[in-house]
Design a protein that fits this description.
There is one protein chain. The protein is mainly alpha-helical. The chain is built from six helices and no strands. It has helices at residues 3-16, 21-54, 57-89, 94-103, 109-154, 177-180. Helix 2 packs antiparallel against helix 3 and helix 2 runs parallel beside helix 5. The radius of gyration is 24 Å and the shape is elongated. 12% of the residues are buried.
Length: 181
């Protein structure tokens, strides 16, 4: 690569890391919505964990449905945010976005930095909470699987049924409704 092309590449990268006020406003609006979605997801994950602990399975079913709806909404919004970031930064990555937000000195600088920091924290917290809930579900499925196996060992002709009247499978290889959420 010639020195001239290298200088142009560095100049182009520097230009791409600078936000103008209009881009900052657009990014701030999207981060605000995304942060609200993640906060709602945190709330639902807490309710999910509480319902599992209290064994409120009918409430848990509603919570899981709402959680799946929120995850679908978040995925859609994530695509929209990704398109915005690609339009602003051409090849966005976490380092480039962080650098651009940190170097922005316009009227939304503090708000944008705070939202970006809070967004990363909320996303990490959602992931942590979802991992914990997943481990709880896995533990519960293993526990119930052992109980059903003990019942079947005592009397191989015994059948167990779910709430809807279908025979309960002794294998948890397919995962249950809880494992799929």
């Amino acid at each position: 690569m010639s020195p001239f092309v290298r200088v142009l590449s560095v100049h182009e990268e520097m230009r791409m890391t600078k936000l103008n006020d209009k881009q900052a406003q657009e990014l701030q609006n999207q981060l605000h919505i995304y942060l609200q979605q993640l906060q709602e997801l945190q709330d639902i994950l807490k309710r999910e964990r509480d319902s599992m602990g209290k064994r409120e399975f009918s409430e848990l079913d509603r919570i899981i449905q709402h959680k799946m709806h929120l995850l679908n909404e978040a995925a859609t919004f994530d695509d929209q945010l990704s398109k915005t970031l690609k339009r602003i930064f051409r090849n966005p990555n976490k380092e480039l976005i962080t650098k651009a937000i940190d170097s922005y000195k316009g009227p939304l600088a503090k708000t944008l930095q705070l939202q970006f920091t809070n967004l990363r924290k909320a996303a990490d917290e959602c992931k942590r909470m979802n991992d914990i809930n997943g481990r709880i579900v896995n533990h519960a499925q293993q526990h119930y699987g052992r109980i059903i196996s003990m019942i079947k060992r005592e009397d191989p002709n015994t059948k167990t049924y779910c709430k809807k009247g279908r025979e309960y499978a002794t294998s948890s290889a397919s995962g249950g409704k809880l494992a799929q959420a």
